[in-house]
Design goal:
By secondary structure, this protein is an alpha+beta fold. Helices cover 23% and strands 36% of the residues. The relative contact order is 0.17.
Length: 226
């Protein structure tokens, strides 16, 4: 009976704590020579894209190993070749759910990629295809070395909330306030500065349940002994 009680308590704590932990995003954005994703830039690799004349196509994909990927920002460089990208909207296609732009880099012979997906992806998939132009004078054996680098998305700095930065006090809404207003906003029981009220509530609830189960088990054992 005690073993069953222990397992019940553990199962309860896991069920209430696990949903609070968001799965961290992990994976890699890559360029590929085809939909089969056999030649890619994953793990820092490069590959040579073959001359397909008017059908020369480069693919962009992502390999998500944990979490959900909703945004892709990357730069592809077309090296050592006569391959170019026009930057026209008609020269690239996005897979279902993806929006954004694929543009010709302002400098060099490269491609800038900025895409978003509201639902996101959770596995290894191709997200876009890019048609490249090859000079008519280029030999059929001409190839293009493909490299890809991920670009950090530009995000506005978060407004401090319930923090003291350079002797400036910020309340729970991110407004600059006096020390007294900061304390009133951020150190009350209703709005603790640590933001950990919910987890503590769940832990207390778990302990209460454990105590109740122990009481019921002990009471039942006495009944059985009689």
């Amino acid at each position: 009976m005690k073993k069953i009680l222990g397992l019940t308590i553990i199962a309860f704590l896991v069920s209430v704590v696990m949903p609070l932990r968001a799965m961290a995003l992990s994976g890699e954005i890559f360029a590929s020579s085809g939909m089969s994703m056999t030649e890619t830039t994953e793990d820092g690799a490069t590959f040579s894209l073959k001359n397909g004349n008017e059908n020369t196509t480069l693919y962009i994909g992502a390999n998500v190993t944990s979490g959900t990927l909703n945004e892709i920002n990357a730069h592809v460089e077309l090296e050592n070749s006569s391959f170019t990208f026009s930057g026209e909207r008609s020269d690239y296609r996005l897979q279902s759910g993806w929006t954004g732009k694929i543009t010709k880099s302002e400098t060099g012979n490269g491609i800038d990629i900025s895409l978003t997906n509201e639902t996101g992806i959770t596995s290894r998939k191709i997200v876009a295809s890019i048609s490249l132009q090859v000079s008519e004078s280029a030999p059929s054996t001409d190839t293009c070395r493909i490299t890809l680098s991920q670009v950090a998305s530009e995000e506005e700095p978060a407004t401090p909330k319930c923090q003291i930065v350079d002797d400036t006090y910020y309340d729970a809404n991110g407004n600059e306030v006096s020390e007294e207003a900061y304390k009133a906003s951020c150190t009350t029981a209703e709005n603790p500065q640590t933001g950990s009220f919910l987890p503590y509530t769940l832990i207390i609830a778990g302990l209460a349940l454990a105590g109740w189960l122990y009481y019921v088990t002990k009471k039942n054992n006495k009944i059985y002994q009689v």
